[in-house]
Each structure stands twice: as structure tokens, then as C-alpha cells.
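Appendix B, record 7
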Amino acid sequence: MLFHQLRSLPATVWEWREAGIETGPAEVWAPLAPFFLQHGYTFFKSTGWDIQKAPSGCPPVRAADPYHCWTGTRERDGEPSCFRSQTAIQIAARSAAQTDVVIRLIKRAGDPDGDAYLKIIQALSSPEARRDSSNRTLPVIEVLELEDMVFGVFPMMRPNGLSCKWFETAAEVFSALDQVLSGFVYLHGQRIAHSPSPSTLPGKWRSRFDAAYFINDFEWSVQFPADSPETSRLVTGMPFEKYFTLEEYGKPLPPEVSSRQPYCPFRMDVYQVGQALHRIFKFMKTIPDLLDLFLDMINHDPVLRPTALEALQRLRGIEKRTPIDILTDTPSNGRSFHPTKCVV
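C-alpha cells (predicted):
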């Protein structure tokens, strides 16, 4: 790769993110295409600012991988590959094995959060960590370095997980919630606070087999040392404030964040997960105890919020008390919405 092409790339992760606002991700990443092709990855073709489709000459449907499995070989048995970028620091690609991946810029020299981010995702992706079924984090497949840049290669997952298709049974709701809360219990057990948590929860496919949910994006996460006292595991403010204000962030944050006093980031995780779940399920009237749980998770007093483990235990108790006829029925979401007509 020519030196001047590397010099044309944005100098920091934040500048990379900003550069794509005008041009779209494809133009920002174009100088890196030969490098990734050498490693077996072909960038998706851009069909708009944020829409990317499988590269020319590749099958339209991805090959099966440990995270996706089609029931047949015909195109209708799988979705034609398509990726909608939400930020220019990531781009979709097809691997040499015809699986779909997302390549993300993790750090450039001088980025203050890159080292911690890389350390966390590598720890969560280690063979020992992957053997724990409670680890619901999306693993990094490969880490690639070029000059002062570090990239992570991740399995491509469907975005807008819990909210992109309504559930066919209440049992599917409980399965989804159990996986998400179990994932946060695991993270907190590793002393990792997601901070901030995603506003939509991770991707799935429910039409042919049980869905699997994953947690990703640890750019602003924090991990405390194993020997740190629990009472010392506190933070102040938010890591993104070096780039924009709390008001510009645009997602619900618990009151303690704006207090400028040290607070528990694990309780903030519970708040933000509760906000996401409340937004998705607040119209579901068939299991009112779930709504009570979500409301407790977004209590303005962090001390009164359940921990992730307590929330998971309450969820499982609610499931045990729910009659079988409700578990096997399509849960109402309080709207004129017919799940069999929803195209995924």
C-alpha cells in the first residue's frame, strides 16, 4: 500500500467516524481494500451512504458459520447479504470462506480508549471465556494491525435485535430476556461495565431455530482490577464526553451520571438495559410482572435498582409463574401488529 494512501486516512477513531458523515464508510475505507484482501476479506459494495451488499462475484447469501445456519441451499432459505452501517468506523466484508464479517477500527496511535477496548474484547473472546455459556458477547474473530491502526474482525449479526420482529410466543420473549440478562451478569462477574449499554439489543433470527443474542461494542466499557474492592468500582461522568456532551448523546442516562459524583457503572448498565426493554415491551399486556421488573431497573435511585443477577432471578421466577397457555401464545404488544406479516 502506498504511503500517501495511508496518510490520507483519518488520524484518530473519532476523526474516522466524522469523516464518514459526508462521504459514507466505503470512501473512507477504500485505501485499505488491498490490505484486507491480502487477509482474505473483500469489502461489500456500497449502494448508498449506509447500505452495503455482498461483493460482486460472490454468492448473494452468506455461508453458514457458528452464528448463522440456513436450512437449505436456495437463496430463499437465507437472506441475501446486506449491511447498513451506522458509523464509518466499521465496514462489511465477505471472507474467503464466504461468511460475512464486520471489520471495525479499534484504535489508532494516540486514541485514549483503544487499548482498554482491545484488552476487553480479547479477554471476552479467549477460548476459556467462550466455553462459558453465559458469555453472550460477540467474539472478535481476528485482530489485524497495519502501521498504527488496529482492526477487529467480528461475525456480522442482524442489527436492532429484539426490536426488528415481534415474538411468536411469550416463551421466545423469556428466552431473549434470559440471554440478555445472563450476558450482563457474566460481564459484571468479570468486573466489566458496558457503559453505556446499547439502545437496541443484539441480533437474532427466530424463524427456523432458537435465536441467539449477543452483546457487542465495548468501546467505552471499563474493567476493574480483580483485586479492587467492590466499593471502589466507581466512575465519574461518561467516557464519550471528550467528544460530545451528555445532551448530544441523545439516549436515556440515569440521573447519577449528570451529578458529577462517582457512581456505580454496573447500576447504570441495569438502567440502560431496563430502558431498552421497557421501550420494546411496554405495550405487552399479557405478562404485567415483566413491566414491573423493567420499571424497577430504571428506578432513578441506583440503590433501589436490582443488580443484573437479581433482575435475572426475578425474570426466571416470573417465567415459572406464567401459565403454559400464555407461554405458548403470541404475546400482545398493545398495537395493531400481526407478527406473521412482519418481513425479516
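Remarks on this record: The beta strands are 41-43, 45-46, 51-53, 82-84, 90-95, 100-108, 142-146, 149-155, 192-193, 222-223. The longest helix spans residues 170-189.
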